[in-house]
């Protein structure tokens, strides 16, 4: 990152998303696109199958299930339409795996865990982007990680903007941050920022029973419902959407909504 580009954590310090209530999260997560939900459920099932193979499977079975998991994550939300692996056998209810060296990564590799070894994904063909890698992490360790795509980051930033001082200066910094990220992609610091925001949010009174998965889906839907406008106005509108969402089962369409445009805050999308 260049010296003129401030990190996301400096621009918008991580804090709880106080505009969200448990009811709002539940309502928004419930209208998450069904086709995407099915593909996400496939990935979570494949993660459980892989976790089970670490306990009882042969190295060949572990490698096969790991490959299936990575392939499903790589195809998740692909622009040409996601590819399903096919009907899955019933995935066992197993606890998340302990840190492990991914099959084929080499014995000297840093073990992959909920909070470690994430650089591994940057070496895997088809998974060299943190948003895609986050799908695998969220499936393996759902209590510690969440999917981090452009909509999730947009929504979290927008909901937190009213808490920062000098919003116009911050908006300028965010535009520079987006330009940089468009060139190099988001990195582990951006992913960690979103995780810190999510964990802080779920630690608030009344949100203890909400899962990271539901929160991520709520953020995704909030951004999908919010028109494409400059950052200061976007932050006002997304807060309004969060307040209205318990009664907003029908998606409000606008000519400049992010469902029709790949820009936010005046910048082209990173994803």
The major β-sheet equals: 2 strands, antiparallel
- Tally of alpha and pi helices: 10
- Mean of the pLDDT scores? 83
Helix percentage: 40-55%
- Termini separation comes to 18 Å
Percent strand equals: under 5%
> Which shape, going by the Cα principal axes?
globular
Q: Which quaternary structure do these chains form?
A: single chain
Domain count: 2
The run of helices and strands is HHHHHHHHHHEE
> What spatial order of strands do you see in the largest sheet?
1-2
Number of strand segments: 2
Task: Describe the structure concisely for a colleague.
By secondary structure, this protein is an all-alpha fold. The chain has helices at 8-11, 22-30, 34-56, 59-74, 130-140, 150-160, 167-184, 188-202, 212-225, 231-244; strands spanning 263-264, 267-268.
């Amino acid at each position: 990152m260049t010296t003129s580009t401030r990190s996301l954590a400096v621009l918008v310090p991580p804090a709880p998303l106080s505009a969200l209530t448990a009811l709002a999260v539940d309502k928004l997560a419930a209208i998450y696109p069904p086709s995407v939900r099915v593909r996400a459920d496939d990935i979570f099932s494949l993660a459980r199958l892989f976790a089970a193979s670490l306990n009882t499977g042969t190295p060949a079975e572990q490698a096969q299930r790991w490959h299936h998991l990575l392939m499903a994550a790589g195809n998740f939300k692909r622009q040409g339409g996601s590819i399903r692996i096919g009907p899955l056998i019933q995935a066992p209810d197993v606890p998340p795996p302990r840190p492990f060296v991914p099959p084929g990564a080499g014995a000297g590799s840093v073990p992959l865990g909920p909070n470690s070894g994430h650089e591994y994904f940057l070496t895997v063909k088809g998974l060299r982007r943190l948003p895609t890698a986050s799908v695998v992490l969220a499936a393996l360790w759902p209590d510690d990680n969440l999917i981090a795509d452009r909509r999730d980051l947009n929504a979290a930033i927008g909901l937190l903007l009213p808490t920062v001082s000098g919003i116009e200066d911050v908006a300028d910094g965010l535009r520079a941050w987006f330009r940089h990220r468009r060139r190099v992609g988001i990195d582990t610091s951006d992913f960690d920022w979103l995780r810190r925001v999510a964990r802080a949010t779920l630690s608030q009174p009344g949100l203890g029973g909400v899962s990271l998965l539901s929160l991520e889906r709520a953020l995704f839907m909030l951004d999908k419902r919010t028109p494409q406008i400059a950052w200061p106005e976007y932050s006002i509108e997304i807060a309004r959407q969060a307040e209205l969402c318990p009664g907003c089962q029908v998606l409000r369409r606008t000519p400049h909504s992010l469902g029709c445009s790949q820009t936010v805050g005046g910048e082209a999308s990173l994803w």
